[in-house]
Amino acid sequence: MSALDVVLWVAVPYVAIAVFVLGHVWRYRYDKFGWTTRSSQMYESRLLRIGSPLFHFGILVVLLGHIGGLVIPKSWTEAAGVSETAYHATAVALGTVAGVATLGGLAILIYRRRTVGPVFSATTRNDKLMYVLLALTIVLGLAATVVANLAGGGYDYRTTISPWFRSIFYLRPDPDLMAGAPPLFQLHAISAMALFAIWPFTRLVHMLTAPLGYLTRPYIVYRSRDERRAPRRGWEPSR
Amino acid sequence: MRVMAQLAMVMNLDKCIGCHTCSVTCKQAWTNRAGTEYVWFNNVETRPGQGYPRTYQDQERWKGGWELNRRGRLRLRAGGRLKKLLTIFANPLMPSIQDYYEPWTYDYDRLFSAPVGEDTPVARPRSLISGEPTKISWSANWDDNLAGGPELAPSDPVLRKVSDQVRLEFERAFMFYLPRICEHCLNPSCVASCPSGALYKRTEDGIVLVDQDRCRGWRMCVTGCPYKKVYFNHRTGKAEKCTFCFPRVEVGIPTVCSETCVGRLRYIGLVLYDADRVAEAAATPDEKDLYEAQKSVLLDPHDPRVQAAARASGIQEDWLEAARRSPVYSLIFDYGVALPLHPEYRTMPMVWYIPPLSPVVDVLTGTGNDGEDAGNLFGAIDSLRIPIGYLAELFTAGDPEPVRLVLRRLAAMRSYMRRINLGQDRDESIAAAVGMSGRQVEDMHRLLALAPYDERYVIPRAHAEQGAQLEELATGCSLDYEGGPGMAGPFGEASGRAAPIAVESFHALRERQSGEELEEAPDLRGRINLLNWDGKGTPEGLFPPRRNGGEEK
Ligand code: SF4
Ligand code: SF4
């Protein structure tokens, strides 16, 4: 276990997590006004209408896949009677479809961003950095899967990467597990950690406020002018 | 019965001269910022015409407002909650900037920097969206005064509904202006459409607002509002809408659009309504009954039971008093001349309109008749189908009867008052023909034609003991944000705290009006609002910096 391994697979993940969490807290406290999707649909919607759902639904499936692969231990799925081959086949099939949709959607969105004048001029440097890291992470992830499957029967990340991932959260990080993973997987993880570290400072924050509460709240929202502040002493209602 | 108070407005369309003063002053006060160039919280459209944004009234296309489902229950026309979330990544019903218009500026610098030559240099238009040279082909009121009439007006969605009855004859037809702001609906579909719950209706006065800190830019409110009165600020990525000038009405002064209205045709007052009955009334099966249903939700402020219930829900005495003096209530009920705009959208709009009699009068006088004679007017109102049919599509979901009654009342007032002006006897029969007494007609005339400021605007102040934020101090303004105008945060221009919209200039104005010092208000933050500049001092940015000698500012 080299020092580099410790840095990459112990220090960097913790830093990324800390920045991710504290960054969101900080941003939520001090920049609620900047917390938005900053949609550019007003400027252009023909390309957006294809690219954006493709990307977003794709990435949601990818996210579910990652939760399935990284969080759920292999022993659990096996106990549930899912064999490694069955798991692998499903993961690869679903992952490829979702990955391609995501990448295709992202390609359309980036193309749109670059070629549609108003959209391009509404793109900040922050956005550009975010797009680079996001695209890089997705490409590396897809490449790692494809290469591993072309080269052989695929790579069983559930014996190395997944336990390493979980070990971080158990606070017993095990960098050895990750040090042996194929380079493409390693690069994918590094770029993902970088992405998480800049996440709270980009427009990606909109993900954390996905409006699921809409499904249950009453349609009409009433709010009092006073809600923000309790009346000061001596200013209570007189009734 | 759950009594709530609502600030409502009435506009008397006969008096609108289409000067756009209201739009311009509103823009100066609220939307003179980057990202809101195309936004007009108040706009004045010529009818017939396409409106702003183009054809917004075509709900087959834009799907704003509510509709009834098969079981007769209300549902958002653009789709329910799940559908909203599933289309959140690309809202298929969102108007594009072209449906409003692409805002532009001119290359003024060319006028100075062009080299000496034969030709006069010209300032070419440039899009404010892309910064590229552009060709101006549409604007917020491109079809003002029926400009481009024969080509543009036929796509007026309202006209399309009536035009199979009558061919559009432009020269002889009619025209009037329709000033529009947000309706501050009792059943606001914009609020219902917001996935984040950022839009809300204020319990105290019914004003519908967007919480800029909660809005995430999902854009569903833009679709949800059938009047297209929520706008997307494309720089900040947040929704913005008419605020009913809440910083002003909270201290008892009317909205900017009303204050500056040249025709003095706007009235602001309170109405009380039963919040428990709103949904039921909005779900009235027949669209044509919606006007009556909407009236039935409003409560009589003179009724002691209503007053008791209002007190029980925490409405204070001065507000009840204001509700009793409300010109809006009088115009809706006592005189029965104010109608809601598009009740068929089922949002229970709270900006009411007195439909214009002038198209009828114009046709009459155009044909050589006496346009002020009661008999002539009544006859014309009954026989002129175009204006009545059109007005009915706007105000009563197509039912001509209420419109006819209103116009007859206005006509009766006209002839009744003419007799008085000419020194003739009061003719009670004219008033009786429209179910009023002469006294009532005179009162109505007073309210419509002569009423002074404090009768047109009966606005109770917000209660200071309810809102400590209303103290008129910089430490406690009603939008108590830290930090300054939010356009320069760490994450690009759109981040940072929200600029306390117009509150800063509002306070600056008060400070200047009451202050002695000839100096800038400290919280102007280098931004100049010409509307508020009263000649005191030399604000930075308005004048070039002094070279030497002059004292430093
Ligand atoms: S008119 Fe105003 S309150 Fe009514 S739905 Fe539209 S934005 Fe909302
Ligand atoms: S200021 Fe008054 S008269 Fe002029 S357009 Fe506006 S509503 Fe009409």
The radius of gyration of chain A is 22 Å
Query: Roughly how many Å apart are the termini of chain A?
Result: 73 Å
Which ligands appear in the coordinates?
iron/sulfur cluster
Number of domains of chain A: 1
Strand content of chain B: 5-15%
CATH topology of chain B: Alpha-Beta Plaits
CATH class of chain A: Mainly Alpha
Major sheet description of chain B: 5 strands, mixed
Helix content of chain A: 55-70%
How many structural domains of chain B? 1
Average pLDDT figure of chain A: 90
Structural class of chain A comes to mainly alpha
- Pick out the low-confidence regions of chain A: none
Could you tell me the radius of gyration of chain B in angstroms? 25 Å
The general outline of chain B is globular
Transmembrane segments (chain A): 6-26, 47-67, 87-111, 131-151, 184-202
GO biological process, one term (chain A): nitrate assimilation
Protein name (chain A): Nitrate reductase-like protein NarX
Keywords (chain A): Cell membrane, Electron transport, Heme, Iron, Membrane, Metal-binding, Nitrate assimilation, Oxidoreductase, Transmembrane, Transmembrane helix, Transport
Structural description of this entry:
Chain A: Heme b 1 binds at residues 56, 188, 206. The complex is a heterodimer of chains A (239) and B (553). Chain A is 64% helix and 1% strand. Chain A has 239 residues and is an all-alpha fold. The model of chain A has no long low-confidence stretch (mean pLDDT 90). Chain B has one domain (1-101, 138-464): Alpha-Beta Plaits, CATH 3.30.70. Helix content of chain B is 33%, strand content 12%. Chain B has helices at residues 21-30, 59-62, 81-86, 97-100, 109-113, 149-152, 157-162, 189-193, 220-224, 246-249, 256-260, 278-282, 290-297, 304-312, 317-324, 327-334, 358-366, 374-383, 385-395, 400-421, 428-433, 438-450, 453-456, 503-514, and strands spanning 3-12, 43-47, 66-68, 74-76, 104-106, 125-127, 176-180, 199-202, 208-210, 230-233, 238-241, 266-274, 298-299, 339-340, 351-354. In chain B, strands 13-12-1-15-14 form a five-stranded mixed sheet, sandwiched between helices. In chain B, strands 2-7 form a two-stranded antiparallel ribbon. At the A-B interface, α2, α5, α6 and β1 of A face α3 and β8 of B. The structure holds iron/sulfur cluster (2 copies). Residues 16-22, 44, 177, 179, 261-263, 265 of chain B line the site of one iron/sulfur cluster (SF4).
